From TrEMBL:
The lineage of its organism: Eukaryota, Metazoa, Chordata, Craniata, Vertebrata. It comes from Neovison vison (American mink). This is Cilia and flagella associated protein 144. Transmembrane segments: none annotated. Keywords: Cell projection, Cytoplasm, Cytoskeleton. Belongs to the CFAP144 family.
Length: 135
């Protein structure tokens, strides 16, 4: 038994064609034709500055209206972009209009500091260093 060697089977043309067909179909399944290319976001890009005196770098190009609209829309705040909140953290402060009209003339809500003769006198005394505030 130890002296036996396995005989190598030579496939005939039909079996060889079937093997090549399966290999070809497997390659077609795994290959993908790329027609759109983009920059790999995981790779660092080294930018090279332009030459200031180069004539082709200093040509005036027309502004792309679609790109400018996209940039201006991205710079807007979330309340101008969306009608409703997009995240739960935006719910805090989304409706920031005051509930009561902030009229400055209404004395019920605004208690401004009023200076009379005695309050002006005492404020001047405290600024000079008198220390009897708690008496």
């Amino acid at each position: 038994m130890a002296g036996r060697q396995k005989e190598k089977v030579i496939p005939d043309e039909v079996h060889q064609n079937q093997i090549l067909r399966e290999l070809y179909l497997k390659e077609l399944r795994t290959q993908k034709l790329y027609t759109q290319y983009h920059v790999n976001p995981l790779r660092k890009v080294h930018t090279i500055t332009r030459k200031p005196m180069s004539w082709h770098d200093n040509l005036e190009e027309p502004a792309d209206a679609r790109f400018l609209n996209l940039i201006h829309h991205a710079a807007l705040g979330p309340r101008k972009k969306y009608t409703e909140t997009q995240t739960e953290s935006q719910e805090i402060g989304w409706d920031s209009e005051p509930l009561v009209n902030p009229e400055r003339d209404d004395r019920r809500l605004n208690h401004f500091r009023v200076y009379n003769d005695i309050t002006l006198y005492k404020a001047k005394m405290w600024s000079l260093g008198e220390d009897d505030r708690h008496k």
